[in-house]
Design goal:
- The complex is a heterodimer of chains A (206) and B (231).
- Chain A has 206 residues and is of the alpha+beta class.
- Chain B contains 9 helices and 4 strands; from the N terminus they run H-E-H-E-H-E-E-H-H-H-H-H-H.
- Chain B has a 4-stranded mixed beta sheet, with no helix packed on it.
- In chain B, helix 5 runs antiparallel to helix 6 and helix 7 crosses helix 8.
- The chains are: A alpha+beta (206), B alpha+beta (231).
- Chain A: Keywords: Transferase.
Chain lengths: 206, 231
């Protein structure tokens, strides 16, 4: 194929979705290589870190989702408009990752109602209440009406909006105490070009 | 609370100063505990670039008070002309790009970032064992070494060893000059070897990177004058 860019990932949104969105928003064609588990077992040893997603540019591989997102964002103009803005994008993304690692056990948990309730009380709510006040503060100090950082779309906007849409599907009302965040997520998901992608992308549970 | 309001004053002072004298160099103050930890890479970036900075090592007992004025309740915090910036890797990347130690091309920069995030993932997995090794947690050191320490080490340092080799055995992990990932790895190795001698002997290419870092004149100078702490 003559395409410069290839994104290799599983057939889910997960840690690949933001890259796909960046390509689509930039109008840059790419091979959206969604591989199966058996394909992965033979590919794994040929990747830099034995993990996905992997970005291939002119045949050269890059791993680690945030490194990929930041690289594409810089190429396509979604990384912040100054070094300080780029820093606040990075800060927000790293803070978000720390939160996501904490809340993960409560997401998509298949167990008894009692266990779900315990996870909500002991894991999900504390993780939320530690992080979302910080996110609101970042948005208030460094963001704007439609963006967490700066005045134009950045990769961290996409990262958070994607997570929020999964979160609110599973736990409706979960972010009601964070109206600033909800408003920004809403604005991001309403961006025309992104809306186009959300409508045409393959439908997966997560 | 007094400390928070004082930093507001400094911030506005610097805003005015920048307006009057736009060519003045930014002022830097890095606040962290009196250890290497997550601040050391940034300290070394200042040393490498000959950039003056205030190396604010906070005594443990002052932390609860200072914490109230931090953006996210954590350290390190870098103050640039009075503006407070959190998150150690965001800080390191910001300084490295400013001073020329982030990688020479966007692709190299991306690889440095990727190795940095891989290091973070490794460290999260490695720390439970490592805390036992340096005595801040209890556990069966020998058992944990076999079940956790060694496999986690081999996975990550195997990646680094291959990367260093693929990069031409130059003593740099990425590209042909020092980047902040070289600094992070070298510092971490020093801390590991201090508590677990010979634990990283099996990685000669990565050892070459470490030697390259600590023999770089400005780093050598810094290592000689910095306070020596166990981690």
């Amino acid at each position: 194929s003559m395409l410069r860019y290839k994104l290799i990932y599983f057939p889910i949104r997960g840690r690949g979705e933001v890259a796909r969105q960046l390509f689509y928003l930039a109008g840059v064609p790419f091979k959206d290589d969604r591989i199966t588990i058996s394909e992965w077992s033979s590919l794994k040893a040929k990747t830099p870190f034995g993990q996905l997603p992997v970005l291939e540019v002119d045949g050269h591989q890059l791993a680690q989702s945030f490194a990929i997102f930041r690289y594409l964002a810089q190429e396509f103009g979604f990384a912040g408009d100054s070094p300080l803005e780029a820093l606040w994008v990075d800060v927000t993304a790293d803070q978000h990752k720390e939160y996501e690692n904490k809340i993960k056990p409560a997401l998509r948990f298949q167990g008894s109602e009692e266990e779900k309730e315990q996870l909500m009380r002991n894991v999900a709510e504390p993780a939320r209440d530690k992080y979302f006040p910080l996110l609101e503060k970042i948005a208030e100090e460094h963001g704007s009406s439609g963006h967490f950082v700066g005045a134009s779309l950045t990769w961290v906007d996409l990262l958070i909006a994607e997570h929020a849409s999964i979160l609110l599907k599973q736990f409706p009302g979960f972010l009601d105490r964070y109206p600033t965040v909800l408003a920004i997520v809403d604005a991001i998901l309403s961006t025309p070009k992104l809306k186009e992608w959300l409508e045409k992308r393959p439908d997966t549970a997560f | 609370f007094r400390a928070c309001s004082m930093s507001r004053v400094f911030f506005y002072f610097f805003e005015i100063l920048k307006y009057i004298l736009p060519e003045t160099m930014p002022s830097y103050k890095l606040t962290y505990f009196d250890t290497q930890g997550f601040a050391e890479v940034s300290r070394q970036l200042f040393a490498l670039s000959d950039t003056p900075f205030e190396d604010n090592r906070l005594p443990r007992e002052e932390w609860p008070e200072y914490q109230k004025c931090t953006p996210f309740g954590k350290m390190p915090v870098l103050e640039v002309d009075g503006q407070k910036l959190p998150q150690s890797f965001a800080i390191a990347r910001f300084l490295a790009r400013k001073f020329g130690f982030a990688g020479k091309t966007e692709w190299e920069q991306a690889w440095v970032d990727a190795l940095g995030d891989q290091f973070k993932d490794y460290l999260n997995a490695f720390l439970p064992f490592f805390r036992v090794a340096f005595g801040t947690a209890t556990g069966d050191l020998e058992a944990m070494k076999k079940s956790d320490g060694e496999p986690i080490r081999d996975n990550f340092f195997g990646i680094l060893e291959k990367q260093a080799k693929d990069n031409g055995s130059t003593g740099f992990l990425v590209g042909s000059s020092l980047t902040w990932i070289d600094l992070i790895v070298a510092d971490h190795m020093g801390v590991v070897e201090y508590h677990l001698p010979h634990f990283l002997d099996g990685f000669p290419e990565v050892q070459r990177v470490r030697r390259n870092v600590i023999e770089t004149p400005k780093i050598k100078e810094w290592l000689e004058k910095r306070p020596e702490r166990p981690y």
